[in-house]
Specification:
Rossmann fold; homodimer; alpha/beta; two-stranded antiparallel ribbon; globular; about 190 residues; 5-stranded mixed sheet
Chain lengths: ~190, ~190
């Protein structure tokens, strides 16, 4: 993202929240500056760009950085949406392959619909499934996720277990397409 | 299954239910006789045998038969359980490939833990995700699933969408392995 785009997007979020009486210090900038100034770097971009985006900022990442991969590779055909398995096994592992070895990657947030998260009046009762090889980094992301009301974070084990988490997202779309009254679906394990 | 095994398993189920004051007419027999006498044929066998089992009884299936595929192909490695994608795309499609063209296949019940279903005191609030190319057959399986208290059946579209449903099952095991107090997990979409 370019600096002006980042600034403008951040201003939108600030204004939306200010309208509800919530003051925030959300700020936007370009990718390199964002990476350099962040502890938690979320690669919130389309799956085809996730690895490239992180690779482009890999030298900007700080020593304390944690990279979070929320992207899902999907393809649509005549029957619906399908998980389009990346060569690395999952998007999260493709991102890990271009991240410096000392920076931990956590896979998370794939199964949350943007429509559900941005509807600030919606009550959530959903799970965020987290996977990764660094227990401390995973713990930080679990805490972050659970700061959102109605979200529970669950641990699916090492990063190599991310594919089965990412695969749920095309199913969520297929379910919304085939069942009346369902949209912006998430998942709860019980 | 051989006739005596089938009979003995059926007697176990009858007795367990009789102990709770429930009379049933559960009966067991060999696979060919079961196929010949059934409208709904559930290939409840390990994934490696699902297609072979149905192929062995294909000439015994009646004109009204519906074949239900609940199996999931999984492999375990050092990180946990993984979906082991069959060449046909999913177990359900592998079963469909050996079933007579006029017999519809419905993929369903993959994400229910045996431990949860056989614990007759457990209250369920889970989803059964159904996929298939024959709307009528899917409707029959939806009704069957929803006759079980606490189960809701959702339609994921055509049979080609089964892989993403089957993929959830190894994740359910990974979650049970990595989160205290979770076991025999199922899934709910909301």
């Amino acid at each position: 993202m370019y600096k002006r785009q980042g600034e403008s997007r951040a201003a939108d979020y600030r204004n939306r929240l200010a309208d509800r009486g919530i003051d925030t210090d959300i700020s936007g900038t370009d990718n390199a500056s964002a990476a350099a100034g962040s502890r938690i770097v979320v690669a919130g971009v389309p799956p085809a760009y996730a690895a490239d985006t992180i690779e482009a900022v890999r030298d900007d990442l700080t020593e304390e950085a944690i990279v979070v991969s929320p992207a899902v590779a999907m393809a649509r055909n005549g029957t619906g949406f399908h998980y389009d398995t990346p060569e690395a096994g999952s998007v999260a592992e493709a991102v890990a392959a271009v991240t410096p070895d000392e920076v931990p990657i956590v896979s998370a947030f794939q199964n949350l619909a943007a429509g559900a998260l941005t509807d600030l009046d919606r009550e959530l009762a959903l799970d965020v499934v987290v996977s990764g090889d660094d227990a401390d980094a995973k713990g930080v992301v679990v805490e972050l996720a659970e700061e959102i009301d109605g979200l529970r974070a669950l641990d699916a084990g090492p990063l190599a277990n991310s594919a089965e988490i990412e695969s749920i997202t095309p199913l969520l779309i297929n379910l919304a397409m085939n069942n009346d009254g369902m949209h912006d679906l998430g998942v709860r394990f019980q």
